[in-house]
Amino acid sequence: KAGVTQTPRYLIKTRGQQVTLSCSPISGHRSVSWYQQTPGQGLQFLFEYFSETQRNKGNFPGRFSGRQFSNSRSEMNVSTLELGDSALYLCASSLAGMGETQYFGPGTRLLVL
Amino acid sequence: QKEVEQDPGPLSVPEGAIVSLNCTYSNSAFQYFMWYRQYSRKGPELLMYTYSSGNKEDGRFTAQVDKSSKYISLFIRDSQPSDSATYLCAIYPGGTSYGKLTFGQGTILTVHP
């Protein structure tokens, strides 16, 4: 079974731009969660989607948004990029997001200049 | 107070040593406990997953949960250089916290030959 895939793997953007990251979950998994990982803050939860609905959201500004498609693939968008948005963005999939194990993708490394 | 506290290390041990990694958490409502391993520039990989108190063993790895003292541990027996990585504890509270894992800061482990 293929694992979680994320594209692109690396991105360089400048302040003020926006960016869209993509995540394809493991086949059969309907829950996708997004996390931001930085050296200072560690792994922090952004939001979770299930059946195209956002069910949970972390403590991030509204510049961070996401969506999920009917095939469970998910995208997250960051608008008006700031230097502090430089991070590894990880997505994780699980069957239903109810405490069962989450499996992470390799991440997208975003550098904001 | 952070919800999950983890000693960041770094921890350096000789090959063959027994490694003990630990986390404490603050909310007694947490129900699910995970350990992830993350190699440099990779996504976290799930190692162990436990529910409630007790021990769980998988090969050289043993996860231990003590809910009375809000303490979780991961033991690695006969450590190998390939075990060198960052180890992250993660907790899922259950209920309507869909998809939201709370992570410790991670412990950097180096196993030298």
Helices and strands, with pairings:
The complex is a heterodimer of chains A (113) and B (113).
Chain A (H helix, E strand, L loop, with lengths): L4 E3 L2 E4 L5 E6 L6 E8 L3 E9 L2 E5 L6 E5 L5 E5 L8 E8 L8 E2 L3 E5 L1
Chain B lengths: L3 E3 L4 E4 L4 E7 L6 E7 L6 E7 L2 E5 L2 E6 L4 E6 L8 E8 L9 E2 L3 E6 L1
Parallel strand pairs in B: 2-11
Antiparallel strand pairs in B: 1-3, 3-8, 4-5, 4-9, 6-7, 7-8, 9-10, 9-11
Low-confidence stretches of chain B: none
Q: Rg of chain A from C-alpha positions? A: 13 Å
Helix content of chain A: under 10%
Q: How many whole angstroms does the radius of gyration of chain B measure?
A: 14 Å
Helix content of chain B: under 10%
Give me the count of strands of chain B: 11
Ranges of chain A with pLDDT <50 over ≥5 residues? none
Shape of chain A: globular
Strand coverage percent of chain A: over 45%
Number of helices of chain A: 0
Structural class of chain B: mainly beta
SSE pattern of chain B, N- to C-terminal = EEEEEEEEEEE
Summarize the structure.
The complex is a heterodimer of chains A (113) and B (113). Chain A is 0% helix and 53% strand.
Describe this structure in words.
The complex is a heterodimer of chains A (113) and B (113). The model of chain A has no long low-confidence stretch (mean pLDDT 95). In chain A, strands 2, 4, 5, 6, 9, 10 and 11 form a 7-stranded mixed β-sheet that branches. Chain A has a 4-stranded antiparallel β-sheet with strand order 1-3-8-7, with no helix packed on it. Chain A is built from no helices and 11 strands. Helix content of chain A is 0%, strand content 53%. Chain A is mainly β. Chain A starts with a strand and ends with a strand. The relative contact order of chain A is 0.33. With 113 residues, chain B is an all-beta fold. In chain B, 0% of the residues lie in helices and 54% in strands. Chain B contains no helices and 11 strands. Chain B has strands at residues 4-6, 11-14, 19-25, 32-38, 45-51, 54-58, 61-66, 71-76, 85-92, 102-103, 107-112. In chain B, the strands form 2 sheets. In chain B, strands 2, 4, 5, 9, 10 and 11 form a 6-stranded mixed β-sheet that branches. A 5-stranded antiparallel β-sheet of chain B has the order 1-3-8-7-6, with no helix packed on it. The radius of gyration of chain B is 14 Å and the shape is globular. Classes of the chains: A mainly beta (113), B mainly beta (113). The interface between A and B is medium-sized, with 29 and 27 residues.
